[in-house]
Structures are given as structure tokens and as C-alpha cells.
User: Fold these one by one.
Assistant:
Number 1:
Amino acid sequence: MKKLINDVHEVVAQSVEGFAAAHADLVISSGDPEALFISRAGGASAGKVGLVSGGGSGHEPLHGGFVGRGMLDAAVPGAMFTSPTPDPILAATKAADGGAGVVHIVKNYTGDVLNFETAAELAQMEDIDVASVVVDDDVAVQDSLYTAGRRGVAGTVLVEKIAGAAAERGDDLQSVAAVAQRVNDNMRSMGVALTACTVPHAGQPSFDLAPDEIEIGIGIHGEPGRERIKATSADEITDLLLNPVLEDLGAASGEQVLLLVNGMGGTPASELYIVYRRALAHLADRGVQVRRSLVGNYVTSLEMQGASITVLRLDDELTQLYDAPVVTPGLRWGA
Amino acid sequence: MKKLINDVHEVVAQSVEGFAAAHADLVISSGDPEALFISRAGGASAGKVGLVSGGGSGHEPLHGGFVGRGMLDAAVPGAMFTSPTPDPILAATKAADGGAGVVHIVKNYTGDVLNFETAAELAQMEDIDVASVVVDDDVAVQDSLYTAGRRGVAGTVLVEKIAGAAAERGDDLQSVAAVAQRVNDNMRSMGVALTACTVPHAGQPSFDLAPDEIEIGIGIHGEPGRERIKATSADEITDLLLNPVLEDLGAASGEQVLLLVNGMGGTPASELYIVYRRALAHLADRGVQVRRSLVGNYVTSLEMQGASITVLRLDDELTQLYDAPVVTPGLRWGA
């Protein structure tokens, strides 16, 4: 294992320290090893609904990279691929609370769901209203290594972006939670791995893929997908991902969508755009119009090579919220 | 070789096609296989100095990802790791010309330098004034596989950003070229590779590194660096890169700099921030103040794992130009 790290036990702490220093104009780190979280440099906005997300580290820029105006108020980085405990989630929730309540955006992994639930109960005891939205956009498998039901994957960035814009324009707690839920309900994803990734403290790849094998439906922690197949062309792989996504979504001709091609961390940008090119043509063939696009590394799996495709059905309100200004280390436009 | 591609001969063409479609609000592709270039969606601005760069593909987002307001007017993607020929450079130069002349920003590789020179001569014959600036920020080696003198590496993004802002505010041809030159003169870089990368049409890694070996001073095409050493900690590697950079730059206590930690394409963001953290501490120990920071994948080498560090000495004007709005697919702020 070759990595740009110092100590396998210090990867998250040192990375968050560097991240907060590099983006000190936008974010601060609690710096507390017992309750590590990242929040907006300016603190909570009075009267605004707070947005908190988090989960195991190793998916950067998710979630810390999406803290800032128009998106999250706080993010809780767990250990690598490991859910954060309730204490830091509670601390982040308190930091994000501006008196109007806090929405928890939780990827559907059993540990995350349980720990965010506990933190929400603790926050309620301190008179902070919490609404929770669970993201489960991955159509690949039902139940998985760490999950009952479907997994939450790359679409999480879209939930955070759009719900963040709703909170920023002044929506109340239930409305922000409702728009986050609406994004999740109208969105499906599926991914492919060309290579595995290595969690630092594990020291070896999380699974094995033969030199000519790829895994269709991979999870963002390397959990098993639908099938292993011989490596094939980008166009064929794109179709293998997009077909189940569109069938499950029930995308019909004439509909407008957002197309997200997400890199797993180790994929050259040039390859993501080749996947995007095919996805666009595939959608056009079905009469589905791509109204907005996002291509890049947003929800990664360390250095894994691979990509995922997310399709979100858009309406005018979701489009407007997606377009709204966002100023975070990982996503930035319009301001 | 497993890659998300269709045909090794179509990688650049299909990638550029996808890129232009994904960012149609910002850029257009010429779509001409004989003269492929990317330019601003709005065309050249009358009276503004045009900025053109280019070079072998495989370093995305450089250069096409930096076309847009406040940065490049056009970019010319060659084949993978191969200089573009004069024809597309000439076509891009004509597209970028708004009547005030065009600055060529050229990374110092023999093929790039020759082909941009030829294109500049052809443009002059069509009454377009061209000024050229050669970027050679890599302190690792003098002369290299494809280079006489020093190589142009990650600092190129800073030249493009700052010169782009100078052009946008209305500086004339010689002034834009002068500020680009000033950035190059005040900037040094050095990189490290943990793994090699594979050029699609080559089909095998461009060099071999043992499982416990890293290469200090690597070029962005995998050209040899200064030395191969046993893999060591991120902090030690950071010091091995930063020491020659700062010595060559002659950075003195009390000076203010921009610190760029650039990923080579396959490096997790978490690792880049660990390198950034150490670089910041190292600079602080020397009394050098980091006034601006940039961390991410800007000048990559396909899926190579590794990073480079660039230090740019700042003054008030360079800082102001760096901070100016930029709206490109790969770099965006302030607008």
C-alpha cells in the first residue's frame, strides 16, 4: 500500500485539518477528536433551517466539501468508511441550529441511520427540532453488506445541493425535508468499479478484481454489485448502468432530467466525459432531455477507478433550486 | 488495461465531444478532427487580448477545462501526451482573436514549443499579433525526455488564471504577456508519483515502480524525476518536494505566497489535504505566509497517483488578478 499519509490512524484527523486550513474562508473544523465536525466559517444563520450530513470518510469531497452557503451547514466525517458516532453528529447539529430546526441528510447505511437517529433524539432533548431524510438512490441491489434496503450513493450530492438552496431561500423545516425527500424519490444511481480501493487501516484492497474484470453495481465502499463481467467498452458499460436506472425511475419520453456522471476518485476526467457522451446519446434515444449536467469527482471511494451515473427527474422548482448560488469547497457557482 | 473508453484512437475526440456537451453553457468544440479546439461559447470579445493554450491530452482539466470568462479563450487538445500540430493551434488563435492580439501560453516541451511557434508565425501572416510565454516551473530536472530546459507542469494553471484576469480587465497584448511571464518567473513546482499511468494507445504503464517505491520529481508524462526512493510518510515526501522548490525560488521569511497542491489524477482528496497540511506547516516554519491556496486535480497525468506542490510568490497585483472572477468548467469563483 502506497499512500500520501503519515499514520493510518491519523488520516482523517490530518486530512480534515488540512482541508479546514485550505478553505478557512468557507469552513471551520471543530478540531475536537471526540466530536470532529466541519461547519460554516460564519456559524449558523439565525432563522435558517440547518442542514447536516455526514458518514464514513473516504468519499471526499462528500460531505465536508459541501459545507458552505447554499448547501450544508455542517458535516460529520467518520473514520474511513465508518459511520460517525452520535456525539459528533449531535455537536454538528447544535452548531448548525439557527433556531429553525435542522435537517439530517443520511445515506442509507445501517450504522449511519442508527447513529443519526440517536443524535436526533439527543438533539430533540435539547429542544432542537430535527427532520431526517434517508438517501437510497442506488438501484444496484436490495440489501447489502452494510445496508438494509438500497444504498445511498452519488445522488446524495444532489439532495444536499437542492435542499441547501431551499433552506437558504427561507423554507421551513418540514419544507426543506420535503424537498430533500422529493429529490431522493425522483433519482436513481448505479456505479461500476474497474479497480478496488484500499482503506488505509486495512492495508489491502477491499476486494479483488481480475485484470480483465469489472464490477457492475458496485457500492461506494466496494460492496458487491450485481455482477462481475469481462471489461468492455465505455458505451456498453454506460448502457448497463443507465438501463436499470431509467427503468427503475420510470423515465418517460419528454421528461427533463439532471445527469450526473460521478468519478469514483481514480478515474481520469477524460473517461468520465466519454461516459457522459454515451449517456447523453442514450437518453436522447429514449426522448429524455438532459436539462442540467454535472461531471466530476463528487462522491468518491478513495482511489477506486470507476464511475456512477445518476439521473434526477427535474421540474421547474428543482431546477431553480439546483441553479441557485452555491459557495463550498467542492461545488461553487453563481456567487 | 481497464479504462472507460471505446477505442484507443477515439479517446480524445469522444472525450472532447462529451466535455463540450456537458458544459455547453461555457464552451464549444470546433468538432473538426483536422483542427480540434475548444473555445468560449460566446466567441472572442472584441478588443480583448485572446488567450490560447494547449498541449497533449491526459492532463484534464488542463487546458480545455480552463476555457471561459477570466481565463482562456481557446484550448487545443493534442493526442494523449502528444503536442497538437500547428493547424489546430492556428485555428484556435484565429477564434480567440478579438483584434487585440493573442497570447500563447505554452508548457515547455519541445513539440509544444515548436508547434506553437509555427502557429504564431502563420497567425502573424494573417495579421494577428501573437506573444508567447513558455511555462517552465518544474525544478526537478534540467532537460528531460521531451524537454530542453525545465518542464512546464502544474503552475500552468496559475499562469492561465492570472493572465486571463489581466486580459479580462483590458490589459494590452504586451502587458498580458508580461504578467504571464511574471507568474512563471515567481513560481516553482515539483511532483511525486506513487504509481504510473497508462496511455490508452500504449496499453501498458509508461514506467514501472516497485510496490514500495515512489519517484520524486516525476514529470507529468511520467518522465524520470530526481530519484526513486522507498515509499515514506506524506510529511517526508512533502518536505522532499518543498525544499528544492523554496530554495530555487529563494523564498524568504516574511514573503507571501500562493500554495497549490495538485493531484495527479488518481489521488484521493484526503491525501492531497494531508500534503497541504504539512506544506503549510513547513512554510510557516520558514516564516513564509500562505495568502492563497488551491488544492485539487488541476494538471493531471491520467490516473497516476501522486501530487505536486507549486509555490507562487505573490504581490498585491497578482493576488488581485488571482481573486478576480473566473467561470470555467474546471475553476470557478466570484461570478
Note: The CA atoms of residues 253 and 287 of chain A lie 4 Å apart.
Number 2:
Amino acid sequence: MSVAAQVVKKFINDPETVVPEALAGVAAAHPGLVRVDLEKQLVLRADAPVAGKVGLVSGGGSGHEPLHGGFVGAGMLDAACAGAVFTSPVPDQMAAATKEVDGGAGVVHIVKNYTGDVLNFKMAAELAEDEGIQVEVVVIDDDVAVQDSLYTAGRRGVGATVLAEKLAGARAEQGGSLTDVAGVVRAVNERTRSFGVALTSCATPASGTRIFDLGADEIEVGVGIHGEPGRRREKHAPAREIVEMMLEPILDDLQPAQGSSVLAFVNGLGGTPLLELYLLFNEVNGQLADRGITVGRSLVGNYITSLEMAGASITLLQLDDELARLWDAPVKTAALRWGV
Amino acid sequence: MSVAAQVVKKFINDPETVVPEALAGVAAAHPGLVRVDLEKQLVLRADAPVAGKVGLVSGGGSGHEPLHGGFVGAGMLDAACAGAVFTSPVPDQMAAATKEVDGGAGVVHIVKNYTGDVLNFKMAAELAEDEGIQVEVVVIDDDVAVQDSLYTAGRRGVGATVLAEKLAGARAEQGGSLTDVAGVVRAVNERTRSFGVALTSCATPASGTRIFDLGADEIEVGVGIHGEPGRRREKHAPAREIVEMMLEPILDDLQPAQGSSVLAFVNGLGGTPLLELYLLFNEVNGQLADRGITVGRSLVGNYITSLEMAGASITLLQLDDELARLWDAPVKTAALRWGV
């Protein structure tokens, strides 16, 4: 493949200002829903802090939209901290967000397991606690593809983050205590596993060229959301076989009982058409049915992306009645909305 | 660029069965919302026909998802007919859909202006009328980029279709007559203009290779949603300049008065990250403000796509109080949902 083919054109003005310009767009597009602190790069629930409610703060590098800013609103996050593309936000941002959303009942930090994010959120929690705010930090590490990775000790945090934000957000909205809400995040993480496959790489605005090369007949099995390598490269294969490759390690690890009900989340990594995501969901649904597992709830679309990477991830959450109820509870954010 | 670089990998089993497999996925993912006739390739509102309500039917070639199947539900479409990728559905599908959703108050067909779609919907309307169903066919042609195109006599129908489906769907839900509902579609079409730009081509599942070639520093200005050529090729440019290139022909044609309020819709063509779409929206918002035009409502995301094409379109609708009210009315579909 020629070098020229590796260039990825983008709609940007200046690689340095992509994130603040996009955040200004978020502010202009969703004025009733969120307010944006452009200086600190925070997306905040418009009515934060909500008195008496446990606050939920998440964040991470940009380039995974709608995660996290698209999930700020009633029934989900109170604040999202945006870092530069694929770069953790800093503790000051997280501490400022924590202070802004604290309604007196404490704040939960939902943190994807990447070394920088974990360190910075822990430091932010200490800063906030110094100011008398109770903080619980919960780390998400649902990606069964690899143990340790380019930016991670242990498993990476991926799709479970979206589900934890929704489910814990519902519990907070319903008046759950700090312990309750953090407990939902932990329960979701324990009951959820994910696996991703890339068909192409992506390119950061700063470099403008693809992070890695994949041949015209190759796929990256177990890819991370920053283009981190997966388990192996394989020849491209029919969707049926790719879904088998993804479900097998998830189910090996999750070990759901026959007759279990799961939330099946088929997520696009950014550059894959929705047509293909629904086709993948159909495979997931069929292959789970063959194993005696029911899809009780589902989510299909681009929710945790890797810029324009073509690819998809599958996330399975073992449901119980309480988690199903929390899933169905109203949510009002830019990217997930129902019941209001 | 090498030939190998033109291959686009996809998550499919067989190019022949992409659409029915994806529709089966839609059925499995949204059981309470829609039912899917897999044989006829129809996505139908779960509770259709709604007695006494005007029915809304749209459809077209697949590959533009979530258009149209993602817009089926209360407050929007009653049925969507899916053709093969980039190929019009046939009159039998449209006639069957019309019959399924007729609640006794007549049915409106919302048709994007492509030669095959227009012919087939007109034939379907005749078939339905032969069975005693009143049908109004309204053609959408909002794309100011080109007059006549590869598959179109006159202007192409693009982003206005999404807005017409939402706004006319709201009027139908509120008890509007056949004349009222068709009138909303016509008013939306008259008050709306669009323009698209591509950074890359896309590939149909059947061919697996890109429809057209664009150099690493080229963009297609005025592109259609099937990869049809636009007005011209240009050197790639900063987002600010690209938005100027898009807004100028829209505003020249729409001629909104100073002080007007518009609905600004920044649409991704499939392969462009949401981060960039919000950055584009920020540009649109700023450049309109500079011209004394207010963005009263907005929509940002992938709603009418061209498979994995990287690119975006801008659609502006001149609002009035009634259209703003219809926009805010509840809608419950897979891809657009609020108020319920």
C-alpha cells in the first residue's frame, strides 16, 4: 500500500483546536441539555449540581465520541472531561468537574482502565476529597482481548463504560446512595465482557496518517480503541466467523448459564456503516440463541468509537431484573435518550 | 493509489443477503418498536395501521441507514421499504407497505428525487388507489449541488427527507388530514436546501471496491449519496473554508431574511467521526450568526449516509413557529427519539 493511501483527510481547521472547536459545537447543538466549560474542556449537565443526587463523572481522551460528552444528562453522567485526542484529561479538569456536580451526596468517577486515566482520576479524587467531597473511583476493564496493552496494565476498559454510565446514572437519578451507585458500576463491570475487531486503522488529527497498517485482506482481532494491537491478525472472513471469533473469548470468560438473559451491545468503531452493525447484531442474536442465551436488551450503533476506524466491538452484560429495570429507566442525553 | 488500496472490507456474509440480514437485525434489536416483513423488505411500525391516522411511507435503496428504517415509529414513518443497496425498492413493496399502514385516512409517500424511486412510488400509488386507498406522493429535491445527476432529473433529494419525515410524522400523529400532512412535506421541501462534500468514496457490498477515486488531497464538492459526482473537485481545505463552500450555494438559493431562524442539520455521510461533525456544526453556527441567521433547532449526526463514505452534508430548513413546534413533538424511532 502506498504512503499516499495512508493519509486520512479530516474536517478540521487546526489539529491543536479540534477538541475545543468540537466542544463549542456540542454547546451550540444542545443548549438545554448541557453547558460546556470550554476552558477546562468539561461537558456538564445543564442543571448541575442536582441537590442530594450522587454525581457521576467520567472522561478520557477525545476521539471516542459520543463517549463521554454525548452521555451527559439526566439519568446518565453529570459531567464528562475531555482530553486531547487519545490522551487522558488532567486531574485539575476532573477535580473541577467533581466540584461542579457535587450535590452533597458524593461523586462516582467511572474510569476506563488506561494508565493515564486511572492515575489522573485517582489524583483528582484526592483533590476533591481534600475539599470535603466524598468520591468513589471505579475502574472499568471489560475487554477480554488482551491482558496488558500499549496503554494499560490489565484489561482495557471499553463498551462496559457506556453501560455502566447508563445503569449507574439511573440508580443515581432514583436516589441511590454513593455506595449504591458505585456498586452498580462495579456490578456492571463484573458482569460485562467485550471484544473488538478492526477492518482499518484510524488517524489522529495531529498526525493525519493511519496509526497502523492492515492489508486489504487482513483484520486486527482484539483491537483496542486507540489502535492498540489485538491478539492477532487474521485473514478477513465472513461476518458469521468474525462474530464467532468475538463471542468465543467473551463467553469463555463470562460463562453465562444456559437460559441467561444478556444485554447485547454491538458497537461501531466509527467507520463501519450501520447496515453492517445490524447485520452483526443479527449474527450475535442468532449465535447466542444457539447457545441457549437470550438477548433481553440491546444497543446497536456507534457509541464508543475510535475516530474513523472501520470495525466493531461486541459487549455482553449478564442482566438481572434490577439491571434491566435500570436500563429501561428514562435517560436524556445527546446520544442516548428515551422516556423523556 | 494502488488497486489494493481501493478494496473496502466489510462485515458481511454474502453480498446478496446483506439487506435481509441487516433487516433481521433491526427486527431483533427493536421488537417493541417495529415489525419487519423480511420477504417484502419492509420495516413497519409495530402498531400499524393506526386507525384514523394518515400513514407515512418512505423508502429507497439501502446503504443510507438509519434512513429510512431507523425512522419508523410513533411521530415519524409508519413504514419504510428497503431496496437493495443503492437501488430503488419495487412498486409491489411500496404498495404492500401502503396497504399495511392505511388507517383509513390515506397515506403520504415521501420520495427522494431519484428516477427509479419516483417512477416506482408513482406506480405504487396507482396500485394502492386501485384498492381504494388515497395516496399523496411528495417528491423531495433539496440538494442544490447539481441540476440533473447520474440517477436524477432535477435536484436530488437528501437531508430534507429526514426533516420531512419527522415534521410530517408529527402532524399526522396530531391528527392532521391527508392534505395537511402532505402539505407539511411540501412546505419542508420548499423551505429546505442541502449540500454535501465527500472526503472519500464508498463501496457497495456487491463490488467491494470504491465507486470513485479521490486523491489524498482532493475533496468532491457537491457529492451525492450514491457517490454521484458533485460540482467539482477541489483541493482539501480547512473546515472553515469547506463550510463556506457549502453554505454559500444553500443560502444563495434559500435566501433567508436577516433575523431568520433555521434548523441546521449537519449530517455525516457514514465514515466521518462525530468529533468532526460537531466541529463542522460549530462552523455552521458561527458563519450563520455572522450573517444574522439564528440556529433555532439543530441535528448533528449520521442520519442519511452513503455507506462508509467520509464526508458531510449541511441542510438548512427555514423555521416558522409551527415547524419548530412539530420538530419538538414526541418521536419514538430507533434513530430519533425524544418526548417518549
Note: Chain A has two domains: 17-190, 192-318.
